[in-house]
Amino acid sequence: MYKVLIADDHAIVRSGLSFLINQQPNFQVVAQAASGNEAFFEVERAGVDLIVLDLNMPPGENGLITTQRIHDRFPKVGIVILSMHEEQDYIDRAMQNGADSYVLKSSPDTELLSALKAVANHQTYVDQNIILTKNDVAEINSKDNDVNVKIEGYSDLSGREREVLPLIALGYSNKEIAKKLYISIKTVEAHKASINRKLGFKNRVDLVHYALHHGLVDF
Q1: Which CATH number fits domain 2-147: 3.40.50.2300, 1.10.10.10, 3.30.572.10, 3.40.50.300?
Q2: Has the keyword Nucleotide-binding been applied to this entry (predicted)?
């Protein structure tokens, strides 16, 4: 039985997807998440095999960043992107960042089910309504397109610091961040100081500008 996590900011979408997937043999939805950070935590907590992930779950971390974080930390977890974004750049970057499949929300249910079965068998799957050119494939396979390479200093941050950064940018207090990440307020303060030191920020305004400029958060 493959354990599945549904990550989407709309409860009704999560419920619908759960109902659909739970009807399929060998697949069971064991957890849900409404944001990128929640998804990251649930992957570890629930020990899932597959995740169906929306790229746009504001306010919160950009879905492309979430995809990469999950892939880097849990490389054996299959990632199926289910998104309204049909732009080729989104598709290329999602696949390059570690997604195993990309399915459009506008497509019929059969596309998602085909994607789940393919990824469960360690195969990639791209929605049949998406046409990948040779240039797209080259872009996906290019390491130069890696998000962390494009963001100066970001790769120097620890995994936890990358979790804290978007929450600071979104305006959460130290207490709220501590509660969300299940850490102490002093630990949050230590992470903030480390982020500022590594990236050369003087205040939160610098951090917000950085997060917005590099697309690290969705409002």
Answers
A1: 3.40.50.2300
A2: no
